[in-house]
Hints:
The structure holds 2 protein chains of 2 kinds.
Chain A: H1 3-13, H2 16-36, H3 41-58, H4 69-92, H5 117-129, H6 132-143, H7 148-155, H8 159-179
Helix pairs in contact in A: 1-2, 2-3, 3-4, 5-8, 6-8, 7-8
Chain B: H1 9-16, H2 22-34, H3 36-55, H4 65-73, H5 97-100, E1 103-104, E2 108-111, E3 114-120, E4 127-134, E5 143-145, E6 149-155, E7 158-160, E8 163-165, E9 170-173, E10 178-179, E11 182-183, E12 189-196, E13 199-201, H6 203-209
Antiparallel strand pairs in B: 1-3, 2-3, 3-4, 4-12, 5-10, 5-13, 6-9, 6-12, 7-8, 7-11
Helix pairs in contact in B: 1-3, 2-3
Amino acid sequence: MEWAELIGRVAVHGDRDAFRLLFEHFAPRVKGLLMKIGTDADTAEEIAQSTLLAVWRKAAQFDPSSGGAAAWIFTIARNLRIDAARRAVRQARADQPGFIDEADDVVDSPEILMTRGEDVSRVAAALLRLSEEQSRVVRMSFIEERPHADIAESLGIPLGTVKSRIRLAMNRLRDLLDEST
Amino acid sequence: MTINHHPPDELLADFATGRLDEADHLVVAVHIAQCPACRRFAGAMEHLAGATLEETAPVAMKADAFAAIVAKLDELQPAPRADVPPPDVLPDDDLPEILRRCRFGKQRRVAPGLKLQPIILPSAKQSRAFLLWSAPGARMLQHSHSGTELTCVLKGSFSHEAGRYGPGDFDFGDGDVDHQPVVGPDEPCLCLVAMSGDLELHGLLGRLISPFVRL
């Protein structure tokens, strides 16, 4: 069954069996990804739990025509990770008067959420045409947040090549997105 | 609206993966809301992030994790978000939607023809965000940056060596940039700015008035 369909069942019926399947698939992956990019295990567990709770709560807001369930869930986890980091900053400032002590979702507004409709098909078409090599280096650098030296080592290429490959990949992606009108 | 100046790709990627400081995030968000090309680029980054999540090796959750979540489901009510009350008076009548929901500090004059109003962000770490009004034809002081400066034009225009910046345009300045923006002659220019570090003013005049310019 498609993940999007399970999210739909959560939204419409409050279907806990569907939710369990989503939990079993995504929670350990959110935790794994967070740990991979340097979050400690306890915080990663906590954020992964909050992420799935948010999937339940926001299921009705999921747009099946958007970028897909995994991208949506990544976005939720990402926002919770930012919130967690912000809470840490706020706590450090708790003694200072005048700071707002609640998690304002100032920037998480509808107009900057996932790309929609026509945009989505263009994005998907462009990504399909990005070579595996280019896609891989972009993901390692920007999503897994691995240092260039680390990428160089695991791909067995010189450091300078990593930098130019990332640059070329980003330019190529821009071109593909512009092209696929 | 024709947008000619965009954020660097790295900045968009960091935006899409949630790595920007709150003030910087806000300025990029305001640009993206108006720029389909950058929205698609950020969307592509999100797609890649989704694909990465799918392929990540799972790490087992704690044994009681699912039970703990289910216990919370019953307490949950829909629509839990408390909206931030809008400020009594918005600093400008037609701010972008994202900014209309922000809280603003007190407006103040920083130099002749130049006033700013801070945006109160609860957890900005390194950078501050503010609205900046400049009078038509105003010539800013030659300056560079010890940190970074992200600017999105909301109204009017300014120009510097890299070209003319009108509504929706995005300007990124860092320590390598040394410039003297000039505001367009026809109307005041309103910008959203996120700045980290300090401005470094150049020239004799800059050194003389630098203690009085509080940005």
